[in-house]
């Protein structure tokens, strides 16, 4: 079972969160995670073209999207990647039923970062994916995971790239949660297939 973590990062903060998400995936037996960074060099005249990333998503059981929040939404580079998933991927819903989740980071206390998560949710919905949020009640404890209280996904506040430990734990938890869900999904799918063969 494998999870694709597709993310963009300019100064490395989102990249470090992606690594924490991958660590969370790897904490679940039989799950591997592939870190797939969206590179600006793969965008020409506004169009993203890296089949390696797209093909890795084809093979993945789940996809976790990550982007910094830039001007209240995902980065332009992440959006270029998302636009490249239109065409046959959207038209034929080739990624339908994959589990999806997301994370973002900004410097603002709010920073309109929730809008980035909502965009990632919409992207997943357009691709027929099943969104997994956080089953962590953010109760306002500044030292606990999900200290910022978002349940649509992971929101992190980091100034000058300094990620606080609870936020790294939240990112780890998201990866672990998605990996566990992939395992549960696999069991259910196998059971359904067995029943269909009776
Ligand atoms: C062009 C630009 C726009 C930004 N817009 C926002 C924003 O709307 N909200 C916010 O909280 N932070 C904003 N930031 C801060 C970044 O989200 C923050 O520095 C983030 O950690 C960068 O991630 P990275 O290190 O992975 O590139 C912006 C930064 C840049 C360069």
From TrEMBL:
It holds the Pfam family FMN_red. The keyword Chloroplast does not apply. GO terms for molecular function: FMN binding; NAD(P)H dehydrogenase (quinone) activity. Keywords: Flavoprotein, FMN. PROSITE patterns: FLAVODOXIN_LIKE (PS50902). One of its GO terms (cellular component) is membrane. Residues 3-160 form the Flavodoxin-like domain. This is Flavodoxin family protein. It comes from Rheinheimera tangshanensis.
């Amino acid at each position: 079972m494998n999870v694709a973590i597709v993310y963009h990062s300019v100064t490395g903060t989102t990249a470090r969160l992606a690594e924490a998400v991958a660590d969370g995936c790897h904490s679940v037996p039989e799950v591997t995670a592939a870190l797939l960074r969206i590179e600006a060099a793969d965008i020409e005249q506004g169009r993203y073209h890296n089949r390696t990333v797209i093909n890795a998503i084809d093979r993945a059981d789940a996809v976790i999207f990550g982007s910094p929040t830039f001007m209240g939404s995902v980065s332009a580079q992440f959006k270029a990647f998302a636009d490249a998933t239109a065409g046959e991927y959207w038209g034929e819903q080739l990624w339908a039923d994959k589990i999806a989740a997301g994370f973002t980071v900004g410097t603002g206390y709010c920073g309109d970062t929730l809008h980035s998560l909502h965009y990632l949710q919409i992207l997943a919905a357009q691709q027929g994916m099943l969104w997994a949020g956080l089953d962590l009640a953010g109760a306002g404890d500044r030292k606990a995971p999900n200290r910022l209280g978002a349940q649509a996904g992971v929101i992190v506040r980091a100034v000058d790239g300094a990620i606080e430990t609870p936020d790294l734990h939240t990112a780890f938890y998201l990866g672990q949660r998605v990996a566990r869900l992939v395992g549960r999904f696999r069991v259910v799918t196998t059971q359904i297939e067995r029943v269909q063969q009776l």
